[in-house]
Design goal:
Blueprint lengths: L1 H9 L3 H15 L3 E4 L12 E6 L6 E9 L5 H5 L5 H15 L9 E8 L8 H10 L5 E5 L1 H12 L7 H12 L9 H10 L15 H21 L7 H20 L8 H29 L12 H23 L6 H24 L11 H14 L3 H21 L10 H7 L14 E2 L1 H11 L3 H13 L5 E2 L1 E3 L19 E3 L8 H12 L2 H5 L4 H4 L4 H9 L6 H5 L8
Parallel strand pairs: 3-4, 4-5, 6-7
Antiparallel strand pairs: 1-2, 2-3, 8-9
C-alpha cells in the first residue's frame, strides 16, 4: 500500500493538489492548521502552518511547511526566489520576526520541506550544511514521497478505518483500472463500506458521526483520487478515473444528506468541497485528452469497429463534455471576475463540443433511446451559453436521422439498454428493427419539447404529423420526478425508484398547443419537486447534472421546459 500511495503522491502538483492533502494529514496527526495555502497571497515562505505536539517527541511546536513539487535538485534548492533555500531564509527573516502570534512565541519551531519527490544526491551536502548552520533557529526536516506515504498510511489509512478488505479492494481496482470494461465494483464496494451505506443507499447498523464520518469522507476522496491518477498512466483508462471521482463525489454528497441537520458540521462541507475541487481538476485533465479529437474529422470511426460502437462512443462523450461545460457554467461564484473565469472555461469546453458535433456525423445518429439524456444535457449547455443556433442545427440533423430510422425501421434508437438487443433487434447491422425495440420513445418527446423551446414550430408540426401517420406504434413518454427524488438522485438511477411516467404523450397538431401543455406541467407539482434540490440550495446545481448523466436518470422535463419562458413573451 505504501508503494501505491507513493506513486500517487508523485503525480500531484504543488499547488491545489499536494498542499490540499497535507492539511488533512496534519489534522489526523492531531495538529491544528492555522494557515492554509491561499493563491495570490504573499506567505513569506510558509505554505501551511499548524500547531500541535511533535509526533515523535511530544513537544509543543509550531510546524511550518514549505510545499514543493517533484525532486529537489540544484535548481530547486537555490535557483531563484521560489527555490527552497530562499523560501526558508524568508521564514527566518520575515515570518518568524513579524508574523508569529503571541501564543506561538514560546513554541519550538519546526520547518518542513514537503515535496512529491525526493532530495537528490547533488544537494545532499548543501542541505546538511544549511541545517547545521541554522539548527539554533529551528529544527528543519525534509519530507519526501516515501516519508509522506508512510505518514498517510499510518494516520489517514490506519487499521481502524482502512481495513484489510478496503486495501484489497483498492489494490484490485488499481490493477484493473486499465480495462475499459471494468465496472469499478471493487472501488464502489469500498466506498459503500466506508460511508456506512447498503446497496440501496441506506445507512447500515451504527453509522459514523462527527470526526469518524469526516475521516470516512477523506478516505473515499483519497481512494478515488489514487484510482483516478492511476488511470493517467500509459496503460490506464482516464475515463475510468473520471467516473470514479464522480461516484465518490455523488455518494459522499448522498451520505452528507443523511446526517441530521443538528449534527451537520462545517468540516463535512469542507471535506466535500475538496472533492468538488479534485473533480474539477481531473475533469479538465480528461477534457484535455479528448479536446484534440473534437477537431479531427470523423475521429471516432478510427477507434470503433462499427456504427453501433461509434454511436455509443459519440453520445457518451457528448454527455460528458456537456456535463463538464455545465459544471463550469453553474460553478458558484462571488465576484464578477470569478464569473468571467468560469464562463470562459465553459465556453472552451463548448467549443470542443461544437466541433465534436460538426466533425462526427454519427453524433446525429443515437443508437439508444436513453441517449436522449446526453442530448438534453448538450442542448441545455448550448442554450445557456448563447449557442442556440448550433443547438437548432444539431436538433434538425437529429430529427432528420431519427425520423428516417423510425420510417425505415433501421438504425432506430432502441428502447432497451441491452447491447444484445441493439445488435439483434435494433436494425443497426443490416436488418430491420423489431416492433419491440420501437414501442416506446423518450427521444421523440425530447425532440418535440426542444423544437418548441428553440422556436422551431415547423419542425414540431412535422414531427407531430409523422408520429400519427408513419410510426403510430411508438409510445411517446417522459418521466417526471416527485418529492422523494433526492432520496435517490445522488446514489442510483432515480427514475426506477421515484416519480411517474407520462405516457402515452399525445402530440397536438400545433407547437402553440404543445407549448401550453409544457407550461402547465411547469406550474404543476412536478415543477415544485425541483425546488428541493439540496445541491441547488447549496449553490451546487451542477452536481444534479452530473448525477443525471452518471446514473442515467432522465433530466426532469420541468427543468428544460422552464427554458421556454426565455423564448416566448
Amino acid at each position: 500500500m505504501k508503494l501505491i500511495i507513493a506513486e500517487y503522491l508523485r503525480s500531484l502538483k504543488e499547488r491545489d493538489e499536494l498542499d490540499r492533502l497535507l492539511p488533512d494529514l496534519l489534522v489526523e496527526m492531531d495538529y491544528v492548521p492555522v494557515a492554509r495555502p491561499q493563491t495570490g497571497n504573499r506567505q513569506h515562505g510558509v505554505d501551511i502552518a499548524a500547531r500541535g505536539n511533535n509526533y515523535e517527541t511530544g513537544e509543543d511546536e509550531l510546524l511550518l511547511l514549505v510545499v514543493k513539487q517533484g525532486d529537489i535538485g540544484r535548481a530547486e534548492w537555490d535557483g531563484g526566489n521560489q527555490s527552497v533555500r530562499p523560501s526558508i531564509n524568508e521564514i527566518f527573516d520575515v515570518y518568524l520576526k513579524s508574523h508569529l502570534e503571541p501564543q506561538d512565541q514560546g513554541r519550538s519551531i519546526r520547518i518542513v520541506v514537503a515535496t512529491s519527490g525526493e532530495l537528490k544526491q547533488t544537494v545532499q551536502a548543501s542541505w546538511s550544511g544549511f541545517l547545521n548552520d541554522n539548527k539554533s533557529k529551528a529544527r528543519i526536516e525534509f519530507w519526501g514521497t516515501d516519508f509522506i506515504a508512510t505518514l498517510i498510511e499510518k494516520h489517514l489509512l490506519d487499521e481502524h478505518i482502512f481495513l484489510d478488505e478496503d486495501r484489497h479492494d483498492l489494490r484490485r481496482a488499481l490493477a484493473l483500472s486499465g480495462d475499459s470494461e471494468y465496472e469499478r465494483q471493487d472501488l464502489h464496494r469500498l466506498f459503500m463500506r466506508v460511508l456506512d451505506l447498503n446497496d440501496k443507499g441506506q445507512l447500515t447498523g451504527k453509522p459514523k458521526t462527527g470526526k469518524a464520518l469526516l475521516k470516512a469522507l477523506r478516505i473515499v476522496n483519497l481512494s478515488a483520487q489514487m484510482f483516478a491518477y492511476w488511470t493517467l498512466r500509459d496503460d490506464g483508462d482516464t475515463r475510468q478515473g473520471f467516473f470514479a471521482l464522480e461516484r465518490a463525489m455523488l455518494w459522499s454528497w448522498h451520505r452528507i444528506q443523511l446526517v441530521d441537520e443538528k449534527n451537520k458540521q462545517d468540516e463535512l462541507v469542507g471535506a466535500f468541497s475538496v472533492m468538488w475541487r479534485n473533480y474539477n481538476r481531473f475533469a479538465f485533465q480528461y477534457f484535455n485528452r479528448i479536446q484534440p479529437y473534437s477537431f479531427v474529422e470523423n475521429s471516432i470511426t478510427r477507434y470503433a469497429s462499427n456504427g453501433v460502437e461509434s454511436s455509443l462512443i459519440a453520445f457518451e462523450q457528448i454527455g460528458i463534455l456537456a456535463s463538464i461545460a455545465l459544471f463550469q457554467c453553474f460553478h458558484p461564484v462571488s465576484t464578477v471576475e470569478e464569473k468571467t473565469f468560469w464562463s470562459n472555461n465553459a465556453n472552451v469546453v463548448l467549443d470542443a463540443l461544437e466541433a465534436w458535433l460538426l466533425n462526427n456525423s454519427i453524433s446525429s445518429s443515437p443508437c439508444l433511446d436513453r441517449h436522449s439524456q446526453d442530448i438534453i444535457l448538450a442542448l441545455v449547455a448550448l442554450y445557456e451559453l448563447d449557442r442556440a443556433e448550433i443547438a437548432k442545427e444539431w436538433l434538425k440533423k437529429l430529427f432528420r436521422n431519427v425520423d428516417y430510422a423510425f420510417k425505415a425501421k433501421k438504425f432506430v434508437p432502441v428502447a432497451s439498454d441491452s447491447l444484445d438487443d441493439l445488435i439483434e433487434e435494433g436494425g443497426w447491422l443490416g436488418g430491420q428493427a423489431t416492433e419491440r425495440m420501437m414501442e416506446t420513445s423518450w427521444m421523440l418527446a425530447t425532440f418535440a419539447g426542444w423544437s418548441v423551446i428553440l422556436g422551431m414550430d415547423e419542425m414540431y408540426e412535422v414531427l407531430a404529423k409523422n408520429v400519427g401517420e408513419n410510426y403510430p406504434g411508438a409510445c411517446i413518454q417522459l418521466w417526471h420526478p416527485e418529492k422523494d427524488l433526492y432520496q435517490y438522485l445522488y446514489f442510483q438511477s432515480a427514475h426506477s425508484e421515484s416519480g411517474v411516467t407520462e405516457a402515452p404523450i399525445q402530440l397536438p397538431a400545433t407547437a402553440k398547443e404543445y407549448r401550453q401543455q409544457m407550461q402547465m406541467i411547469c406550474k404543476s407539482e412536478f415543477g415544485k419537486a425541483l425546488l428541493d434540490s439540496p445541491a441547488s440550495l447549496s449553490g451546487l446545481l451542477a452536481l444534479d447534472f452530473i448525477s443525471y448523466r452518471h446514473f442515467s436518470t432522465p433530466v426532469p422535463p420541468v427543468f428544460w421546459y422552464s427554458l421556454i419562458n426565455d423564448t416566448v413573451g
